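Progress report, Aim 2. The chain analyzed during this reporting quarter is listed below.
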Amino acid sequence: MPIHSSWGPCEAGGMAQTIRVTRHAHAEFICFLNAVEREIPPGKLVHAVVDNYATHKHPKVKAWLERHPRWTFHFTPTSGSWLNAVETFFSALTRKRIRRGSFHSLVALQAVIKRYLAEHKANPKPFVCTATPTAILAKPDACSV
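Predicted C-alpha coordinates for the chain:
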Protein backbone atom coordinates (compact mmCIF):
# COMPACT_ATOMS: atom_id res chain seq x y z
CA MET A 1 0.00 0.00 0.00
CA PRO A 2 1.93 3.07 -1.19
CA ILE A 3 1.74 6.14 1.02
CA HIS A 4 2.80 9.70 0.27
CA SER A 5 3.57 11.71 3.40
CA SER A 6 4.97 15.06 4.33
CA TRP A 7 6.50 16.03 7.62
CA GLY A 8 5.54 19.49 8.74
CA PRO A 9 7.00 21.73 11.40
CA CYS A 10 6.15 20.95 15.02
CA GLU A 11 3.63 23.77 15.20
CA ALA A 12 1.73 22.04 12.38
CA GLY A 13 1.32 18.96 14.57
CA GLY A 14 4.05 16.74 13.16
CA MET A 15 2.53 14.94 10.17
CA ALA A 16 1.20 17.64 7.87
CA GLN A 17 -0.23 15.43 5.18
CA THR A 18 -0.66 11.69 4.60
CA ILE A 19 -2.35 10.25 1.54
CA ARG A 20 -2.74 6.55 0.86
CA VAL A 21 -2.73 5.78 -2.86
CA THR A 22 -3.32 2.64 -4.87
CA ARG A 23 -0.27 3.26 -7.06
CA HIS A 24 3.04 5.02 -6.51
CA ALA A 25 3.02 6.85 -9.83
CA HIS A 26 3.64 10.42 -10.93
CA ALA A 27 -0.08 11.33 -11.18
CA GLU A 28 -0.72 10.34 -7.56
CA PHE A 29 2.43 12.14 -6.45
CA ILE A 30 1.29 15.34 -8.19
CA CYS A 31 -2.11 15.04 -6.42
CA PHE A 32 -0.20 14.73 -3.16
CA LEU A 33 1.94 17.79 -3.98
CA ASN A 34 -1.22 19.77 -4.75
CA ALA A 35 -2.73 18.74 -1.40
CA VAL A 36 0.40 19.87 0.48
CA GLU A 37 0.53 23.08 -1.60
CA ARG A 38 -3.00 23.97 -0.46
CA GLU A 39 -2.02 23.51 3.22
CA ILE A 40 1.06 25.76 3.22
CA PRO A 41 0.49 29.51 3.55
CA PRO A 42 1.34 31.61 0.49
CA GLY A 43 4.79 33.15 0.51
CA LYS A 44 6.45 30.30 2.44
CA LEU A 45 9.27 28.42 0.75
CA VAL A 46 8.84 24.65 0.60
CA HIS A 47 11.80 22.27 0.77
CA ALA A 48 10.86 18.65 0.11
CA VAL A 49 13.22 15.80 0.88
CA VAL A 50 12.47 12.95 -1.50
CA ASP A 51 14.15 9.71 -2.44
CA ASN A 52 15.44 8.91 -5.91
CA TYR A 53 12.34 6.99 -6.93
CA ALA A 54 11.58 7.58 -10.64
CA THR A 55 8.14 9.01 -9.78
CA HIS A 56 9.79 12.03 -8.17
CA LYS A 57 11.80 12.75 -11.34
CA HIS A 58 9.02 12.22 -13.91
CA PRO A 59 8.77 14.98 -16.58
CA LYS A 60 5.28 15.93 -15.37
CA VAL A 61 6.58 16.30 -11.81
CA LYS A 62 9.43 18.47 -13.13
CA ALA A 63 6.85 20.58 -15.01
CA TRP A 64 4.83 20.90 -11.78
CA LEU A 65 7.95 22.14 -9.99
CA GLU A 66 8.54 24.75 -12.70
CA ARG A 67 4.99 26.05 -12.15
CA HIS A 68 5.58 26.16 -8.36
CA PRO A 69 8.88 28.04 -7.93
CA ARG A 70 8.64 28.19 -4.12
CA TRP A 71 9.20 24.42 -4.06
CA THR A 72 12.67 22.83 -4.01
CA PHE A 73 13.28 19.09 -4.06
CA HIS A 74 16.29 17.70 -2.19
CA PHE A 75 17.05 14.14 -3.25
CA THR A 76 18.47 11.76 -0.67
CA PRO A 77 21.40 9.65 -1.82
CA THR A 78 20.83 5.99 -2.58
CA SER A 79 20.70 4.04 0.71
CA GLY A 80 20.26 7.33 2.59
CA SER A 81 16.66 6.94 3.76
CA TRP A 82 17.77 7.75 7.31
CA LEU A 83 18.24 11.36 6.11
CA ASN A 84 14.50 11.70 5.50
CA ALA A 85 12.40 12.27 8.65
CA VAL A 86 9.35 10.70 6.99
CA GLU A 87 11.34 7.50 6.45
CA THR A 88 12.21 7.55 10.15
CA PHE A 89 8.49 7.87 10.91
CA PHE A 90 7.69 4.93 8.60
CA SER A 91 10.41 2.90 10.30
CA ALA A 92 8.79 3.52 13.70
CA LEU A 93 5.36 2.63 12.28
CA THR A 94 6.77 -0.62 10.92
CA ARG A 95 8.54 -1.54 14.18
CA LYS A 96 5.68 -0.59 16.49
CA ARG A 97 2.61 -1.76 14.54
CA ILE A 98 3.31 -3.74 11.39
CA ARG A 99 6.28 -6.07 11.89
CA ARG A 100 5.24 -9.46 13.23
CA GLY A 101 1.61 -8.41 12.81
CA SER A 102 -1.03 -10.65 11.35
CA PHE A 103 -3.41 -8.92 8.97
CA HIS A 104 -6.20 -10.90 7.38
CA SER A 105 -6.94 -8.23 4.79
CA LEU A 106 -5.73 -4.95 3.36
CA VAL A 107 -8.55 -3.23 5.25
CA ALA A 108 -7.20 -4.64 8.56
CA LEU A 109 -3.69 -3.36 7.75
CA GLN A 110 -5.06 0.06 6.78
CA ALA A 111 -6.99 0.22 10.08
CA VAL A 112 -3.78 -0.40 12.06
CA ILE A 113 -1.96 2.32 10.09
CA LYS A 114 -4.84 4.81 10.51
CA ARG A 115 -4.94 4.13 14.27
CA TYR A 116 -1.18 4.71 14.56
CA LEU A 117 -1.44 7.98 12.60
CA ALA A 118 -4.31 9.15 14.83
CA GLU A 119 -2.33 8.29 17.99
CA HIS A 120 0.70 10.15 16.66
CA LYS A 121 -1.33 13.22 15.70
CA ALA A 122 -2.97 13.27 19.14
CA ASN A 123 0.42 13.38 20.88
CA PRO A 124 3.04 14.62 18.39
CA LYS A 125 6.67 14.82 19.39
CA PRO A 126 9.26 16.77 17.42
CA PHE A 127 11.92 14.81 15.57
CA VAL A 128 15.27 15.63 17.11
CA CYS A 129 18.40 14.59 15.28
CA THR A 130 21.01 13.50 17.81
CA ALA A 131 23.82 12.90 15.33
CA THR A 132 26.52 15.53 15.11
CA PRO A 133 27.48 17.01 11.73
CA THR A 134 30.91 15.42 12.14
CA ALA A 135 29.38 11.96 12.62
CA ILE A 136 27.08 12.43 9.62
CA LEU A 137 29.91 13.56 7.36
CA ALA A 138 32.14 10.69 8.53
CA LYS A 139 29.50 8.08 7.64
CA PRO A 140 30.41 7.75 3.91
CA ASP A 141 34.09 7.34 4.83
CA ALA A 142 33.21 4.35 7.03
CA CYS A 143 31.56 2.52 4.13
CA SER A 144 33.76 0.25 2.09
CA VAL A 145 33.59 0.71 -1.67
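The first strand starts at residue 3 and ends at 7. The chain is about 45% helix and 15% strand. These observations will guide the mutagenesis work planned for the next reporting period.
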